[in-house]
Here is the input.
Amino acid sequence: MERKQELKHQLSEFYSESKEVETGIVQDFGDEAESSYTKEFLLSLSDTERKKLALIDQALKRVETAEFSICQSCGVKISKKRLNVVPWAALCIVCQQKEEEEAS
Here is the structure.
């Protein structure tokens, strides 16, 4: 829950910062490109944080249904060590590695 509140706060900050970056007031092409990149970077950060927030919400739902520490792919119990590092993890480390390999 604490991490969820932190992420909501970060999303709000990213949104505010992206609004501050105005591309219309720059004077040359280099400044405009830098400003555009900065704005895109800030918005991509909020996208990443939004995805993480969704993962946290899903983990909280799994807590309610007693599926929190169970791998959503193979049904094996997720290690406490993994959950301490990534409390919103939906997959055990083996399934996570397989998913990442398939995505590459």
